[in-house]
Amino acid sequence: MSTLSLDSTQSVNPMIAHGNDLYLAWQVLRSEQPRLRARDAAAQLSVSEAELLASRVGEDALLLRADWSALLPALVTLGEVMVLTRNEHCVHERHGVYRDTTVMANGKMGLVVSADIDLRLFLSGWHSAFALTDETKRGTQRSLQFFDEQGTAVHKVFLTESSDLAAWEALLKDFIATEQRSTLNTVAALEKPAELADSDIDVQSMRARWARLKDTHHFFALLKKAHTTRTQALRLAGAEWAQLLPSAALPQLFAQASEQQLPIMVFVGNQHCVQIHSGTVTHLRWAGDWFNVLDPEFNLHLKANAITQLWRVRKPTTDGVITSWEAYDAMGELIVQLYGVRKPGIPECEQWRALAESFAPLMAVEA
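Now predict its structure.
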């Protein structure tokens, strides 16, 4: 356990069945491509990221107990951290303190609702957790990494220069799993149900329900009731509620929000975690196909050419119409979602609405 510097773990006497072949293969790959990220290395080795990380148990990684109701609230002791949530095409990074954490009694849902770190946690899909101490050219990088049953990362927490190392050591001691295994069993993801034909959707009924929405959080129930996917519902909603925009408009929206220093909400997530930034964006940069926000407390890395559909969406609520921009990939998966900053019970910011509505649609979605 040398790189973890946690002497107390020795008393646990973990039984380590080391995945030598995978670990050694990764070491060779790392020597050949030292800048290769773990996610990309796993893909090259034809394993999941979690399986690759498990192979490092006994070297520079620990398997932790999957006790989310105790572990997640304990992260407040670490002080300032950087949290990272991503999907296939977008990475969301936010600095702050992991405070105000709530895990529901059934253990299936969790929330972090502080001003700096804002998360929606769908914990029924969380499966494994690791602590990693990685020696890099920039120094020692310590992180907690959470994965689903497929071995896909759902959320990561990185220590910063301001984090409490004594709290880190205490956290590992409290949550180390009794059995330290360097192999991990994963399961294949279930196939998504096929999208129904448009002719099988009761469009008028769906639009009527849409018009009666009282809260944006009720939208998922609308989709389920109508038996539609998100993109199908947007396509069938009609121009009153959804309009298709040119994909290139999204970086332009960020640029104008930056110029106006208009606070926005940037949602990025996967099946099991959604991470939200609320505030302004300032430093915008392109790097090849990637559009980036590079602010001190918030970073966003968006593969812009992965966007195949960009929608302006309007949802009625008890606080008035709420306007969002939603970007989707070729599989109909949500990449990133933008709103104006607002609190429940307060109408949408007029400045945000004016900006969101200022872009001409590609086409009208006719009734």
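The radius of gyration is 22 Å.
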